[in-house]
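Much of the work behind modern protein science is quiet bookkeeping, done one molecule at a time. Below is the pair of lines this work produces for a single protein:

***
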Amino acid sequence: MARGYPDQIHLEQMSFEEVAAAIAEGCTTVVIPLGAVEQHGPHLSLGMDADHADALAERIARDRGHTLVAPTIKVGCSSHHLPFPGTISLRPETLEAICLDYCTSLAGHGFKRLLIHSGHIGNFPVIKDMLGRLRDAVPPDVEILAFSDSTTWIDTWRDAVREAKGDVSAVGGHADIAETSLMMVIRPESVRQDRFEVGHLGGLSESDLELVWKNGIRSVSPNGVIGSPFGSNREIGEACLAAVAELLIETFESATKAAGARR
């Protein structure tokens, strides 16, 4: 069993007495995972990003110890995927309002460190924009940290795929070899291997990104895939999960140490 208290780390599965006891024993850090309900090509389920966020949150909490996991905010900002049936998208101000209510509620109970991450890269700009306002809304002794570096995230996937002897050119960031492989680990029954299709290959240029945000992802990829799922396997999935979890853990630890040094 990983270090730390308690054995149960999922806040929603605990009673209020168990949460109070955990806080009293120094369990004052909470991970807040964000996801999305959006298309992931013909071969993955709409809830992939929420499943991914769940899995990363558990790894972060188990590694850190004395850390709980808040209920995942499953729906995110996915307006660029709305032409695909089933996608649900929040307005940025709606997602911010939900995060604000999470943070103020948790801070009010005595949690002192709130760690926000997203399994959906499309939430990153919104997270970056809202972070200062979230911090202003809680007492000064409550630390809110968030990860929003999409370039480093995708580079970490590329390194993990390379180390697992996968095809790095198939990494694109959406329903690609990395996301498909990690879903083979997290929820293998959700991967429709008979529906694999190549999507937009190569990195997205600035003009590509402008098209995506203005006209939706179909403007650069008719099937909604950025990259390719071909070559996906569990080994690559384990490598991608471990690498991104470590990236988040190290980023949060470094930010906490930097904040402590400034005090």
Summary: The chain is about 45% helix and 10% strand. Strands lie at 29-34, 67-69, 113-118, 143-146, 171-174, 226-227. The longest helix spans residues 234-262. Helices lie at 16-24, 48-64, 92-109, 124-136, 150-163, 177-186, 206-215, 234-262.
